[in-house]
Here is the input.
Amino acid sequence: MGWDTVLPALISSVLDHLTVVYIPDVIPVDDEIELRIATESDAATLFQLVEKNREHLRAWLPWLDETTSIQDEIEFIHGQLIRHQKTDGSLFLIWYQGRTIVGTLSVNQVDHGNQTGWIGYWLDRGHTGKGIMTRSVGAIVDVLLVSCGFNRVVIEIGVGNSASMAIPLRLGFREEGKSVERQWMYDRWVDSLQYAITAREWPPNHLTPSE
Here is the structure.
């Protein structure tokens, strides 16, 4: 399936020779998965999912101590909606089988001048091993590089987080380098690895965008 024929990408501004487009609110992945922009009405459900996975997520995500109530989640989503409207970032919820939120997939940063986006993700522990995140990441990468005119997508992952590292490698990303003591994780510094892929390289020969 070609996302450029499905998604209503809307032009927001033109910077010199670069066309910047809105990231769509909904990204269909396949028959089981859909990505939808988080809204404030999703806050309670998302917070419950965070609570359920708090211990599981704490090894690699630094923001859990800042998310201790539904109100915290509401405020976070509100800020992300503003960023989405400005095309500066997006927070997607991963909907599985049309009825269950199983994680998030976000565009954490956008460099419009260099047509680059950084993405991050986490998944409910009970839904790992089903290919959900690999398929979801593949779909959003395809949207960014094919429909939205980005030239490059980057994923940064903590050294040792083998489950997350496997995803960009499956999708044909290159490992570009290591950042030493990149992030403070509650009680320790964590190094990170950077993976990237460009529009010219996407999709890799062994993949199709829908895989």
In short: The helical segments are 43-57, 70-85, 132-147, 162-170.
